[in-house]
């Protein structure tokens, strides 16, 4: 794994995140690129990204050395129940799945975790690094007890990453686009 610096995103990172989402969106990738990258991005409205970024809920991974020092190579976007009210899809996830069985105000939802594809050889381990930073440097200072995310069963790279990090399957369902999805959960703060 290359040396990385993980930090909260700045307002200047939002356009880069949107560009990365577009570059990694399924409509722009070949079947081979989708399989090799292990993920397909969704497009998140900039208004939503700016709101949650204002509350420091987006993490950015940057290369710490070499020719691309300082270049963003990945990101992790989170939201809580209050943030989800501004996004119909995440509002539905909280209301339909999380609120039924969990204390929703103690839950954090991973909206998206992604890495850039053009520097593939330099991005190995970025997902693990982003999650480790979240678990070790962010979660201990919050009231969040659970972290949720959803993955497509067609994305074995993401499924394996989340299993390796201790996430467990909560539910399988079809999303608003009729895609099969898996809701995953990890208990991160038993004292909260």
Write the layout of secondary structure elements.
Layout lengths: L3 E5 L5 H10 L7 H7 L8 H9 L3 E6 L8 E8 L1 H4 L3 H14 L5 E9 L10 H13 L7 E6 L4 H9 L3 E7 L5 E8 L5
Parallel strand pairs: 4-5
Antiparallel strand pairs: 1-2, 2-3, 3-4, 5-7, 6-7
- Taking pLDDT < 50 over at least 5 consecutive residues as the criterion, the unreliable ranges are none
Across the major sheet, the strand order is 1-2-3-4-5-7-6
Order of helices and strands: EHHHEEHHEHEHEE
Q: From the helix content, strand content and strand pairing, which structural class follows? A: alpha+beta
Largest sheet: 7 strands, mixed
Secondary structure tally: strands: 7
CATH topology: Aminopeptidase
Mind telling me the CATH class?
A: Alpha Beta
Estimated helix fraction: 25-40%
Count of domains = 1
Assign the CATH superfamily. Gcn5-related N-acetyltransferase (GNAT)
- Helix tally? 7
Please give the CATH architecture. 3-Layer(aba) Sandwich
- Structural shape: globular
Distance between the termini: 32 Å
In percent terms, what proportion of residues is strand? 25-35%
Mean pLDDT: 83
CA gyration radius, whole angstroms: 16 Å
Structural notes for this entry:
The protein is α+β, with helices and mostly antiparallel strands and 192 residues long. Helix content is 34%, strand content 26%. The protein has a single domain (4-187), classed as Gcn5-related N-acetyltransferase (GNAT) (Aminopeptidase, 3-Layer(aba) Sandwich). The chain has helices at 14-23, 31-37, 46-54, 81-84, 88-101, 126-138, 156-164, and strands at 4-8, 58-63, 72-79, 107-115, 146-151, 168-174, 180-187. It has a seven-stranded mixed sheet with strand order 1-2-3-4-5-7-6, sandwiched between helices. A hairpin with a 5-residue loop joins strand 6 and strand 7 (180-187). The relative contact order is 0.15.
């Amino acid at each position: 794994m290359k040396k990385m610096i993980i930090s909260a995103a700045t307002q200047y990172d939002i356009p880069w995140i949107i560009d990365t989402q577009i570059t990694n969106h399924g409509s722009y990738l070949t079947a081979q690129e989708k399989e090799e990258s292990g993920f397909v991005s969704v497009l998140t409205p900039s208004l939503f990204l700016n709101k949650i970024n204002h509350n420091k809920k987006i993490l950015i991974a940057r290369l710490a050395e070499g020719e691309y020092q300082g270049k963003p190579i990945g990101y992790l976007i989170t939201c809580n129940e209050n943030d989800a009210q501004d996004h119909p899809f995440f509002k539905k996830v909280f209301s339909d799945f999380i609120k039924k069985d969990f204390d929703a105000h103690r839950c954090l939802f991973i909206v998206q975790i992604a890495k850039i594809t053009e520097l593939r050889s330099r991005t190995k381990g970025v997902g693990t690094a982003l999650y480790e930073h979240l678990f070790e440097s962010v979660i201990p200072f919050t009231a969040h007890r659970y972290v949720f995310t959803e993955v497509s069963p067609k994305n074995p790279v993401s499924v394996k990453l989340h299993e390796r990090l201790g996430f467990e399957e909560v539910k399988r369902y079809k999303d608003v686009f009729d895609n099969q999805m898996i809701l995953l959960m990890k208990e991160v703060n038993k004292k909260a």
